[in-house]
Amino acid sequence: MRFINTLIRPLAAAALALSMLVPAQAQSVGDMSKDELSALIEQIVEEKIENLLADTPKASAAKGRFGMAVEDYLLANPQLLERMSVALQTQAQEAEIAQTRETLKALGDRVYNDPDQVVLGNPNGDVTVVEFFDYNCGYCRQAVGNMMQLLETDKNVRFILREFPILSQGSADAARISTIVNRTEGVDYLEFHTKLFQSRGQVDKARALEVATEMGMNPVELELAMQDQSITQAIGRTYQLADALGINSTPNYIIGNEVVRGAESYEGLKRRVDNLRECGETTCP
Predict the structure, then answer these.
(1) Rounded Cα gap, residues 254 and 244, in angstroms
(2) pLDDT of 263 over the 90 cut
(3) Which N-terminal residues, if any, form the signal peptide (predicted)?
(4) How many CB atoms within 10 Å of residue 185?
(5) Yes or no: is domain 109-279 CATH 3.40.30.10?
(6) What residue ranges do the domains of the chain occupy?
(7) How far is the C-alpha of 159 from the C-alpha of 9, rounded, in Å?
């Protein structure tokens, strides 16, 4: 039965049951719910399989005939495979969304209240957007402008930046210096952030130190502070958060109870924020 269950049942339920077996029940199908119809199909297919395999000496031949019947039907109706593929993909996406929501709920303050996160916009805003970024990510460079436009047009958004250096050692060094800048009173983090993204070529330790020095910080002290264990721990917490949420690229966003994977335009961010206010989801019905 394992052979039938793993290879035949999904195809038989969708193909043979619908085309060959269900018509016998056609008069009552219209009155059935989706769950009742699915249960009926399962029952009929199980009976068909049992009938085919009832005679043990002929079981192998029955398997062959049954498999050929399924194959013939699918070859004659290729659109069924496409429908099945779309259904499976939709099911997988729904499962992933549900799992992400559960994970976000479990993570709680680790998402929105890390001591080293950068908070821009309205710290008491009614909607929070979290962005994972890398200073050497081209799409993250474009995302800066989208973030700035969102903060300019919506004064009730709380925007959190999380250092997620994954592209190079230069990214990791820049993230360490950036974390120190964020901790330093009297230094404009956003100015530092935008200047690094305006840099030509790769952003590395030298470039981050150069920008920080231009803003009045001591480069020697910065290099010493880079090795502090608390800096390593701060960036490590973002790595752990990203791992828990299946984030492995930049930019990625957390908006409400959803992880938005990949770059998002200003219009896209604004629409998701507005939807969250309207219906509690980033996509309203």
Answers:
(1) 13
(2) yes
(3) 1-26
(4) 4
(5) yes
(6) 2-80, 109-279
(7) 49
Give 21-78 pLDDT, tens digit per residue. Answer: 444 444 444 555 656 655 655 665 566 556 655 555 555 555 566 667 666 766 777 7
Comparing CA positions, the residue from 137, 139, 201, 197 lying closest to residue 167 is 137
Q: Are 172 and 165 in contact (CB under 8 A)?
A: yes
**Long-range contacts (CB closer than 8 Å, 24 or more residues apart) made by 237-240:** 237/110, 237/114, 237/116, 238/114, 238/132, 238/162, 238/163, 238/164, 239/164, 240/110
The pLDDT value given to residue 11 = 46
**Whole-angstrom Cα distance, residue 39 to residue 198?**
60
Q: How many CB atoms lie within 10 A of CB 110?
A: 14
